[in-house]
Amino acid sequence: MVENEYAKAIYELAQENNKIKVFRDCFVVVTQTALNNNEFMEILSSPVVNKSNKKDIIKKVYGSLDEEFVNFLYVIIDHNRFSSINDIYYEYENLVLTDKNIVKASIFSAYELNDAQMKEIISALEHRYKNKKIEAENIIDSELIGGIRVLVNNESVDLSLKTSLDKLKESIL
């Protein structure tokens, strides 16, 4: 994936210049703008709009961000990859987490889990992902009847009652 290469490049630059958090914050600003304004995203992603005009827009909108990061945005513009900015940020974030030995887990449940339940799930994840720090968040999913579904690094462990019932239904039919 090309996004990986851009993420690696900006991550290496961030490491060299001690700007990992600075670049992460810059990514947040850029991706939030892109997510919240479709027209803005379309303009910066359009092959019809002149690259120098896109760079002028970048300078006006993001000129207060870190200069090296803005130059990175120019490179993305030069290679017609601004439409991939969210994916590049996602890959950058994965590199940061990997470097810090952190695994992010999303724990989906029908209701809010209490502290003891969260600790038990985190403990099981720590056992599975040895030498990693687990950062977990509980997400309420009204589609679940009961049980939980855990998503870690695009790997899903589905222990929900709904999935169990669906599998039972399939085996009967």
Protein model, in words:
This protein has 173 residues and is an alpha+beta fold. It has two domains: 2-97, Orthogonal Bundle (Peroxidase, domain 1), CATH 1.10.520.20; 101-172, Glutaredoxin. Helices cover 61% and strands 16% of the residues. It contains eight helices and four strands. It has helices at 2-16, 20-36, 38-45, 51-62, 67-78, 85-99, 115-128, 161-172, and strands spanning 102-109, 133-140, 147-152, 155-160. The chain has a four-stranded mixed β-sheet with strand order 2-1-3-4. α1 packs across α2 (20-36), α1 crosses α6 (85-99) and α4 packs antiparallel against α5 (67-78). It starts with a helix and ends with a helix. The relative contact order is 0.12.
Structure described in brief:
The chain is of the alpha+beta class. The protein has helices spanning 2-16, 20-36, 38-45, 51-62, 67-78, 85-99, 115-128, 161-172; strands spanning 102-109, 133-140, 147-152, 155-160.
CATH superfamily of the largest domain: N-terminal domain of the delta subunit of the F1F0-ATP synthase
Range of strand content = 15-25%
Provide the CATH topology of the largest domain.
Peroxidase, domain 1
Write the CATH architecture name of the largest domain: Orthogonal Bundle
What share of residues is helical? Answer: 55-70%
Q: Taking all residues together, what is the mean pLDDT? A: 89
Describe the global form. elongated
Ranges with pLDDT <50 over ≥5 residues? Answer: none
Cα end-to-end separation: 41 Å
Strand order of the largest sheet: 2-1-3-4
Q: How many separate helices?
A: 8
How many beta strands in the DSSP annotation? 4
Largest sheet: 4 strands, mixed
CATH class of the largest domain: Mainly Alpha
Radius of gyration: 20 Å
SSE order, one letter for each helix or strand = HHHHHHEHEEEH
Q: What class do helices, strands and sheet pairing give?
A: alpha+beta
The domain count comes to 2
